[in-house]
Amino acid sequence: MSYKEIEEVDVILLWGSNAREAHPIFFHHLMSGLDNGARMYAVDPRRTSSATFADVWLGLNLGSDIAMSNTVAREIIHQGLVNQNFIDHSTTGFDTYAESVEPFTLEVGAELTGVPAEAIAEMARAYATADKAQILWTLGITEHHNGVDNVFALCNLALLTGHVGRWGSGLVPLRGQNNVQGGGDMGALPNKFPGFQNITDPAAQAKFRTAYGVDLPDEDGLHLTLMFEAMDRGEITSAYVIGENPADSEADIEFARATLRGLDTLVVQDIFMTRTAELADVVLPASVGWVESDGTVTSSERRVQRVRAAVSPPGEAKHDQDIIGELARRLGYDWGRPDSIELWDELRSLSPLHAGMSYQRLDAKGLQWPCPSLEHPGTPFLHSWLWDDDLGGHPPAPFTVVEAAGPKEELSVEFPMRLTTGRALDSFNTGVQSGGFDSPIRYGDALDINPADAASLDLLDGERVLVSSARGSVEMPIRFQPEIPRGLTFTTFHFPEFVDINVLTSDAWDKKSGTAEFKAASIRIDKIEAPAAENHSEVDHHG
Amino acid sequence: MSKESIVTVSIDGKMVSVAAGATLLDACRQAGVDTPTLCYADNLTAANACRVCVVEVEGSRTLVPSCSRSAEDAMVVQTDSERVRHSRKMVLEFLGSGVDLSQADDLAGWIDYYGSEPDRYGPDRAMIKEEVRIQDSLYIRDYDKCVLCYKCVSACGEDAQHSFAIAVAGRGFDARIRTEFDVRLPDSACVYCGNCVAVCPTNALQFKTEFDLRKMGEWKPTEQAVTRTVCSYCGVGCNLEVHVQDDTIVKVTSPDDHDVTSGHLCIKGRFGWSYVQPGQSAAEEGD
Question: Which of B111, B152, B210, B253 could make an SS bond with B196 (beta carbons 3.0 to 4.6 A apart)?
Answer without folding.
Answer: B152
